[in-house]
Structure formats: structure tokens, C-alpha cells
Write a sequence for this structure.
């Protein structure tokens, strides 16, 4: 721990000295989030350490960066602070302080070399993606080295290797990767960006011993010989032609020990299976009309550092399979979202918009997801998810904007929440109204109703927001389960929220009193179930 602090302090001093020199500049950022937990048994915010004992939790990240263009040098570091943090496991507060990120990058002509914690991606991320998503405590950086070659933007080659980060330590399995991309012009309006990638993950001895011990506990028919090395490949291409853009990617993974995620399986045993995934997206946009079509087929594409159980849902994940369902921003329509499944999934979606005049825009979206092995009359493997969404936005005068819409969702709770519940049907009409009072002041209002009888029952949601640019923002809202389903929630609870924000240049403060219902929280297509929240949230963000 002392070595970590010494390294971070030395880097800070070095950056500070060089920032006043002839070359280079120093930059950074600070983000802190503090939760004050207020016990509320009515909404389920109790019988957890943060409500019964700790009362306060803080998360903070301090980034420091130094860039020297003359020498093609970039150095960065980040300190992470977690005090009774509920980010990783919402029901088990975690405390830890350490070096969350450190890297040195050097450019030499067409080559770039990087060492330290690496965030990277191949294609759409199906094969490999190392990234950070703070709101869900995802930070699966690769601790290792990377070499890149870029020939005039026409050919890009990349090779990397290392071990995956786990909090302030590492996971021992070794990851090696290679990625090649091209950029080909086929005319004035036609361009191709093809690519290919390969990953080799080699298990360490301790991880393999755990896998073997698990397999040996099975009867003879369930046993198999696991392999140390797993190889995964991908081919992808983006074709742009005039108003069209088409992306397609196909990935394959060799056999390895994975968790049996079959819907009809009665246990979470290990099986020996290969995996594959195909994803494509077709976009067309011309004048007043635009449409996006997506398709995805996934079979056993579970690609983690190891199949052994982990503390957090996202620990050890090596890739990101893009979801095709719509991620709604409004409160009630966003309650039912279908994240990508790694086992068996066949998914389709469309998102179309039409603007017949400057004052009117229509949007129509739909998605359908089911199991590859779906049986027609089996309620468990019935369609996982279906959504129909329609909205119209009208601007009768320049400062006024009105949106009216409706969403229908069929959601399989057994698949996405593993609670054994049947499919639920959600009906959600909504309205949004926004008016710009003058160049600085604006007011916005949301009204939503949701009928979902087999889950929480019936909801009403209202929000009123007032903004004074560029400094102040205020909002109040209430999410009221006015007619609850007694089997899920016997109380007609109110979930209030009061928010205030202040921004001064690169410094921002936020303060909110929040009551949040238990449910799925999604960010960037990644979701997890979180318990109810009751308390005060205070945040500071600064860049320098």
C-alpha cells in the first residue's frame, strides 16, 4: 500500500514540475459520490449493513494526466477511494483504497507502446472489451503491455497481453490478443473498414485446480477434461455507401468449461462447450427518414477469465455483447430492459424515425428476443422479451416541445431476474413537456402511468424540472405505486426525489434526496438487480 502511495505522489510531483516547463501540460479530474443512508422498512431499505450500521458511504476517483507532445509521451494515474461503498455488491459495503489505474504511453513514428492498465476493445466488443463503468463498479482493465502500428490510417495493427484487474489486485489467467483493421475507399461514397481479432486466454494452475475439483464432484457422465487454453476469433466489417451503413461481426470460441445456463437445467454445473455469436446492424438515413435494424444470435458465448464463482456479477468478464433492445431514458419505460444473454439468444430490433415537418417527428421502435431452443408451449423458454414503442414529438412554437408516447413490454422475469415469476405485461403511456422561458431558463415536466399487474401493479410518475443555464438545476419527482400487487408489495409506497445542482465552469455539485424502488438498473446496456435505496446523495465533479 505504501508503494502505491509513493508511486502516485512521485507522479504528481513529476507532473506538477513538468506542467510549468516548455513542453507538455498537466490535467486531471476529481469525482466524489457520498451516500447518506436513511433506513426505510416500508420500501425494503433495511436489514443491510449500510442502513443498520454504517449510515454513510463514499466513492471517489482522482485522475492525473501529463502529456508531452514533443516527446510523444503520455502518463496517467488514478487513485480510487471506496469507503462503505455499495457499488460492487449493493448489499455488502466495501472499503478499499489504492491505485486504480496507471499507464505510460509512448509514440515513435507510426508505433505506439503502452504499459500499465489498459482499456481496449476489438470490434463491437463481442470478442474482447476492457472498460470502466463506475455506476456499476465495472473496471476490468488489463494490466500488461500493448503495441500499436498505424500506417497512414489505412492499416492498424494491435497486440497486447497481460492479466485482468480485480479491485486492487489481479486475476492470474493470462490474456493475449491481436487485432487488425483496414480502411478501404471504394469510391467517393463507398468505404469499408474490415477487421479481425484473436484472443488466447490461458488459465493459471490455481484456477484450473478449482475447475478440476468441481468436475470431479460430478458423476461419471458429467465429467470432462478441461483445457488450459481457450481461443476466440472474430471477423467484422463496416460498409458505408451513401445513406447506408452496415456493420456485421461473427465470433467463435473454442470449447472450455462454462456454467450451464440452459433454462431447463436444475443446477449451475460446469459443461464443456464452444460458443459463437453473430451480430449485425443496418442503418439508413436520408433527409426526414431514418431506420436502424439489428439482429443477434448468441450460443454459449460465455467469455470470462474463469468459470469459478465471483463476488461481483461483473468480475472476470472479458467481453461485451451489444444488446438490441431499446434503452429508454424515461423512468417507468426504463424499468424493463433486456440485457444481452450469454447462453442462448435470438434477438431482433428496429428503430425508425420520420420527420414530415420541422414541427413534428414520429418514432416507432420494436424488439423481440427469444431462446434459440424455444418450445412453443413451454412458459420457461417462451419469448424472453418483446417491446413496442411509439412516440410523437411536436413543436408548435420555437420554445415549446411536447412528446406523447406509449410503450408495451412482454418481459420474462424468470430469465432476467431468476425469481421464477411468469411473463409480465407492461403498458406505459407517457408525456413530456418542455418550455424555454428565455435564453437561460427552461422548465420541463414528465407524466407517466404504468400498468403491470403481475409485478408491482400500477404506477404513476411525475417530474418537474427547472434549469437556469449555466449554473442551476432543480427537480422534484414522485414515483407512486398507487395500486400495488399485494403478492409483490403490500404497501402503496411513494418514491420521492428532490434534486439540486450547481455548476461553475469545470466544477459541479449535486445534492439529492432519493427513494428508489428495488429493480434492475442499466447503464450502457449492462444491467444488474439493485435493492431499494433510501437516503441523500451528494456529488462533486471537477476537471482541471
Amino acid at each position: 500500500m505504501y508503494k502505491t502511495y509513493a508511486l502516485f505522489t512521485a507522479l504528481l510531483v513529476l507532473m506538477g514540475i513538468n506542467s510549468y516547463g516548455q513542453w507538455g501540460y498537466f490535467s486531471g479530474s476529481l469525482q466524489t459520490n457520498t451516500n447518506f443512508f436513511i433506513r426505510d422498512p416500508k420500501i425494503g431499505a433495511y436489514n443491510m449493513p449500510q442502513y443498520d450500521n454504517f449510515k454513510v458511504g463514499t466513492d471517489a476517483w482522482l485522475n492525473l494526466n501529463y502529456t508531452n507532445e514533443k516527446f510523444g509521451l503520455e502518463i496517467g494515474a488514478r487513485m480510487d477511494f471506496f469507503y462503505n461503498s455499495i457499488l460492487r455488491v449493493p448489499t455488502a459495503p466495501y472499503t478499499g483504497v489504492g491505485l486504480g489505474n496507471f499507464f505510460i504511453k509512448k509514440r515513435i513514428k507510426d508505433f505506439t507502446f503502452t504499459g500499465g492498465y489498459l482499456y481496449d476493445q476489438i470490434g463491437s466488443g463481442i470478442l474482447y472489451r476492457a472498460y470502466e463503468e463506475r455506476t456499476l463498479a465495472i473496471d476490468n482493465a488489463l494490466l500488461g503491455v500493448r503495441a500499436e502500428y498505424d500506417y497512414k490510417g489505412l492499416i492498424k495493427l494491435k497486440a497486447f497481453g497481460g492479466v485482468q484487474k480485480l479491485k486492487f489486485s489481479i486475476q492470474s489467467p493470462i490474456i493475449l490478443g491481436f487485432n487488425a483493421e483496414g480502411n478501404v475507399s471504394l469510391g467517393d461514397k463507398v468505404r469499408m473498414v474490415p477487421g479481425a481479432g484473436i484472443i488466447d486466454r490461458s488459465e493459471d494452475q490455481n484456477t484450473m485446480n478449482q475447475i478440476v475439483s468441481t468436475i470431479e464432484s460430478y458423476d461419471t457422465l458429467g465429467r470432462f477434461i478441461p483445457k488450459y487454453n481457450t481461443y476466440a476469433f472474430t471477423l467484422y466489417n463496416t460498409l458505408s455507401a451513401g445513406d447506408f451503413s452496415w456493420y456485421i461481426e461473427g465470433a467463435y470460441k473454442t470449447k472450455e468449461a462454462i456454467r450451464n445456463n440452459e433454462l431447463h437445467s436444475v443446477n449451475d454445473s460446469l459443461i464443456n462447450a464452444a460458443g459463437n455469436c453473430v451480430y449485425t446492424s443496418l442503418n439508413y438515413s436520408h433527409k426526414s427518414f431514418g431506420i436502424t435494424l439489428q439482429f443477434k444470435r448468441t450460443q454459449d458465448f460465455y467469455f470470462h477469465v474463469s468459470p469459478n464463482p465471483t463476488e461481483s456479477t461483473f468480475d472476470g468478464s472479458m467481453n461485451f455483447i451489444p444488446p438490441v433492445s431499446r434503452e429508454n431514458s424515461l423512468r417507468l419505460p426504463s424499468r424493463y430492459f433486456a440485457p444481452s444473454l450469454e447462453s442462448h439468444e435470438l434477438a431482433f430490433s428496429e428503430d425508425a424515425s420520420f420527420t414530415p415537418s420541422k414541427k413534428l417527428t414520429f418514432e416507432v421502435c420494436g424488439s423481440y428476443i427469444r431462446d434459440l431452443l424455444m418450445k412453443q408451449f413451454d412458459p420457461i423458454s417462451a419469448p424472453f422479451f418483446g417491446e413496442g414503442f411509439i412516440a410523437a414529438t411536436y413543436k408548435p412554437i420555437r420554445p415549446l416541445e411536447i412528446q406523447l408516447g406509449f410503450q408495451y413490454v412482454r418481459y420474462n422475469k424468470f430469465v432476467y431476474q431468476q425469481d421464477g415469476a411468469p411473463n409480465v405485461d407492461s403498458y406505459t403511456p407517457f408525456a413530456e413537456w418542455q418550455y424555454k422561458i428565455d435564453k437561460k431558463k427552461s422548465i420541463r415536466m414528465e407524466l407517466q402511468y404504468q400498468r403491470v399487474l403481475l409485478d408491482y401493479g400500477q404506477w404513476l410518475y411525475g417530474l418537474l424540472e427547472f434549469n437556469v443555464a449555466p449554473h442551476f438545476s432543480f427537480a422534484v419527482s414522485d414515483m407512486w405505486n398507487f395500486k400495488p400487487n399485494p403478492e409483490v408489495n403490500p404497501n402503496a409506497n411513494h418514491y420521492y426525489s428532490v434534486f439540486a445542482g450547481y455548476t461553475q465552469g469545470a466544477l459541479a455539485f449535486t445534492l439529492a434526496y432519493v427513494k428508489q424502488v428495488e429493480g434492475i438498473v442499466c447503464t450502457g446496456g449492462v444491467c444488474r438487480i439493485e435493492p431499494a435505496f433510501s437516503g441523500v446523495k451528494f456529488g462533486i465533479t471537477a476537471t482541471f
